Amino acid sequence: MTQPHRPDTSGFRPGETGDDVLDFVDDLLGSANPNPTRDGCLSLEEINEIANHKRPLNDPGWRHMQNCSPCYRELRAIRRTIEGQAFDPRIVQ
Ligand SMILES: [Zn+2]
Hints:
Layout: H1 18-31, H2 44-51, H3 60-67, H4 69-86
Helix pairs in contact: 1-4, 2-4, 3-4
Bound molecules: zinc ion.
The site of zinc ion has 8 residues, from α4.
């Protein structure tokens, strides 16, 4: 017996570029898990360590990022700052 077809409400469209997919995942993780009580949230120092890759990939903080949009958004903000600092416009010709 087959499952009845359910409409895809994810917003993902096949054929999108890799950047589009990453943006989609970024938006999804940044909004899908609001965690209004901030249950189990990490400190800013802990998020900074994750953003700066000072914690191993098996660190429980990474798992929390997948399940907590507020912490994920803080992580993304830190990463964007780091990536912005790494970009030196004087090098662009
Ligand atoms: Zn959190």
